């Protein structure tokens, strides 16, 4: 797995967004979710750079981007920012591939902020209620206490939480890369802050409009996703009559790590069909 390096930054409303651009060809933007970062997409970005100009970025509050405790990190803000980024990058109709929360960000930007896409691929996305978990509810009720956990206890909790997103198990290297941004003086409170900001109203506001999306759309889902069960894929497909759906066997929510070859094959077929 390549290291998580983003060499460029962009400032907006006091936030510093870490991002990078690779390759040449039609524009392709990759969106991560929570509690992830662009790390999950980096190997795919390197591969797609042979055929696309790939844009990779960390949302504020995540990864290498700023984690100021005074800044909002909710999905409403992130979708507004994404619309701004596309304008700042000069991308009028990019191809978009989104995972987890990134799906909400892409869908809201499309339906509420006037963005348009050449195509849209939604991978195990947050899009339909109910979402969140008992852990989310625990964090909302006790965020102040959890923020003050001793660092080793906090790290153990985050590691256990993240392990639950994989069906096949994570290597030590991948687990470390996913957990490390959530440790330290800024990372620990940021981890609980982004969970505390989660709210189903951000999908409720657009859920009834998914059928309005007329760009070519593909839905991909891990068959063994324990965080967002595969029935959400079928419900989302029903809400987007023009979309197509593929379920990836023996893969959980972290399909990028559980089934990278099969996901790469699906994404390659999809991007070739809409390029």
Automatic annotation (TrEMBL):
Keyword annotations of the record: Hydrolase
Pfam family, one: Abhydrolase_6
GO MF annotation list: hydrolase activity
Gene source species: Glycomyces tritici
Lineage of producing organism: Bacteria, Bacillati, Actinomycetota, Actinomycetes, Glycomycetales
Protein name: Alpha/beta fold hydrolase
Gene3D superfamilies in the record: alpha/beta hydrolase
Boundaries of every AB hydrolase-1 domain copy: 28-265
């Amino acid at each position: 797995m390549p290291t998580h390096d983003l060499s460029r930054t962009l400032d907006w409303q006091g936030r510093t967004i870490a991002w990078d651009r690779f390759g040449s060809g039609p524009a392709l933007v990759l969106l991560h979710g929570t509690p992830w970062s662009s790390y999950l997409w980096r190997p795919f970005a390197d591969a797609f750079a042979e055929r696309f100009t790939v844009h990779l970025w960390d949302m504020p509050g995540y990864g290498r981007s700023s984690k100021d405790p005074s800044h909002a990190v909710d999905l409403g803000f992130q979708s507004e920012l994404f619309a701004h980024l596309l304008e700042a990058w000069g991308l009028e109709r990019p191809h978009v591939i989104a995972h987890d929360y990134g799906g909400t960000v892409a869908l809201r930007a499309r339906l509420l902020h006037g963005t348009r896409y050449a195509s849209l691929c939604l991978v195990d996305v947050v899009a339909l209620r109910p979402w969140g978990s008992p852990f989310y509810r625990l964090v909302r009720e006790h965020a102040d206490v959890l923020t003050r956990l001793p660092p080793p206890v906090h790290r153990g909790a985050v590691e256990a939480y993240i392990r639950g997103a994989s069906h096949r198990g994570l290597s030590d290297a991948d687990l470390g890369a996913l957990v490390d941004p959530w440790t330290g003086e800024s990372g620990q409170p940021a981890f609980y802050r982004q969970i505390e900001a989660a709210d189903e109203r951000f999908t409720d506001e657009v859920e009834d409009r998914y059928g309005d999306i007329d760009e070519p759309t593909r839905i991909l889902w891990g068959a063994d996703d324990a965080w967002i069960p595969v029935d959400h894929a079928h419900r989302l497909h029903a809400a987007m009559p023009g979309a197509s759906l593929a379920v990836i066997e023996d893969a959980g929510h972290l399909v990028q790590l559980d089934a990278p070859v099969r996901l790469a094959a699906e994404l390659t077929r999809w991007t070739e069909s809409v390029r």
